[in-house]
């Protein structure tokens, strides 16, 4: 091989490596997941849960996303006793230790996470929050802030405008791109569940960067956190936006 060919090959290899590095940087890595539930759909198949029995059309979770949780990737039950882990897996969440929160966070969480009526915050802290370096107050404060940003976006507007109607994946991804920048919709997965013959949208899981795991994320832009995550497949391609009530 001539010196010219070697230089050409070397240059080509360098460009491939550089391109791969740029692609990785642009794509980022998903370190956290923001799980946002569409509560009316969840309640269709969990009607006996306290938060579902009390759901009403005028309540916040009837027309807004609810906080399910903020999950560190590939970590759970960090430093949790075997007894607590067993109680959590049995679903008896009110037997788990009460989570210590400020009055302000407790009030905000009760609105953002109606599942607190069933001890969901105890489960989320034991399984996920304990794996972060944050206090419980900061951990839930970040979650409340991020789901609030989602509810202030074109994504929530799309859902609220289509209650009782089907919405396609393309429309949801476009709403994410509109509010959180090009490619944001590629960092979201949608889950659906069936109630009778109707396939309903039950949850969005949104990829976030490592910065979501710090107390400073309580004032961070959701767009930046999403853009720093890796891409994923969207999952369910279409579902109905369920209305509150059974």
TrEMBL record:
Pfam families named among the record's database cross-references: Ribonuclease_T2
Magnesium is among the record's keywords: no
InterPro entries named among the record's database cross-references: RNase_T2-like, RNase_T2-like_sf, RNase_T2_His_AS_1, RNase_T2_His_AS_2, RNase_T2_prok
Record flagged with keyword Signal: yes
Keywords: Signal
Extent of the signal sequence: 1-23
SUPFAM superfamilies referenced in this protein's UniProt entry, alphabetically: Ribonuclease Rh-like
Family to which the UniProt record says this protein belongs: Belongs to the RNase T2 family.
Name of the protein in question: Ribonuclease
Organism: Rhizobium beringeri
Upper lineage: Bacteria, Pseudomonadati, Pseudomonadota, Alphaproteobacteria, Hyphomicrobiales
């Amino acid at each position: 091989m001539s010196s010219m060919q070697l230089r050409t090959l070397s240059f080509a290899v360098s460009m491939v490596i550089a391109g791969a590095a740029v692609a990785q940087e642009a794509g980022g890595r998903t370190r956290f997941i923001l799980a946002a539930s569409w509560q009316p759909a969840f309640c269709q198949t969990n009607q006996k849960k306290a938060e579902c029995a009390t759901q009403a059309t005028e309540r916040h979770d009837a027309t807004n996303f609810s906080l399910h949780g903020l999950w560190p990737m590939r970590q759970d039950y960090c430093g949790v006793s075997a007894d607590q882990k067993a109680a959590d897996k049995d679903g008896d969440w009110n037997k788990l230790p009460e989570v210590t929160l400020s009055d302000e966070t407790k009030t905000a969480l009760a609105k953002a996470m109606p599942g607190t009526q069933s001890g969901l915050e105890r489960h989320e802290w034991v399984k996920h929050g304990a794996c972060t370096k944050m206090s419980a107050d900061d951990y839930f404060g970040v979650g409340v802030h991020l789901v609030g940003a989602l509810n202030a976006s074109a994504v929530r507007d799309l859902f609220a405008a289509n209650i009782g109607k089907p919405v396609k994946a393309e429309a949801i991804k476009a709403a994410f791109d509109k509010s959180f920048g090009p490619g944001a919709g590629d960092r979201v997965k949608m889950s659906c569940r069936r109630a009778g013959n109707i396939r309903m949208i039950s949850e969005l899981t949104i990829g976030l960067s490592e910065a979501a795991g710090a107390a400073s994320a309580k004032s961070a832009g959701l767009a930046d956190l999403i853009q720093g995550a890796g891409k994923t497949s969207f999952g369910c391609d279409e579902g109905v936006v369920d209305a509150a009530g059974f």
